[in-house]
């Protein structure tokens, strides 16, 4: 599959509906961001609450792949900054 992905701080972002995947799937970990709530601001829908999950890409059982998670009342960029910290720490260990 060829194509360009949007990136944030050097890692790809893939969005499908309310789900956002952050990171390279061939790396040991990726971050899954689920949009839980949005609010209207100046006629646009803005993210207001997310669930952020660090996932182990080598775990064959999807139920065991979730390493850690958190819910945050925040916008997209704050969620991505949070995800970037988790991803960087996980990939360095």
Keywords for this entry:
93 residues, alpha+beta, six-stranded antiparallel sheet, 49% strand
Kindly describe this structure.
- This protein has 93 residues and is an alpha+beta fold.
- The chain has one domain.
- It has one helix at residues 76-92; strands at 6-8, 11-16, 19-22, 29-41, 44-56, 66-72.
- It has a 6-stranded antiparallel beta sheet, covered by helices on one side.
- Contiguous low-pLDDT stretches (5 residues minimum) are none
Count of helices? 1
Major sheet: order of its strands?
A: 1-2-3-4-5-6
Our estimate of the beta-strand percent is: over 45%
Structural class: alpha+beta
Give the topology.
Elements: E1 6-8, E2 11-16, E3 19-22, E4 29-41, E5 44-56, E6 66-72, H1 76-92
Antiparallel strand pairs: 1-2, 2-3, 3-4, 4-5, 5-6
What's a concise summary of this model?
The chain is an alpha+beta fold.
């Amino acid at each position: 599959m060829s194509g360009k992905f949007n990136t944030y701080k050097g890692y790809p972002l893939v969005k499908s509906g309310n789900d956002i995947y952050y990171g390279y799937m061939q790396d040991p970990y990726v971050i899954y961001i689920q949009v839980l709530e949005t609010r209207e601001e100046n006629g646009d829908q803005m993210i207001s609450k997310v669930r952020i999950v660090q996932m182990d890409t080598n775990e064959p059982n999807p139920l065991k792949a979730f390493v850690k998670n958190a819910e945050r009342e925040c916008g997209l960029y704050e969620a991505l900054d949070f995800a970037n910290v988790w991803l960087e720490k996980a990939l360095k260990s």
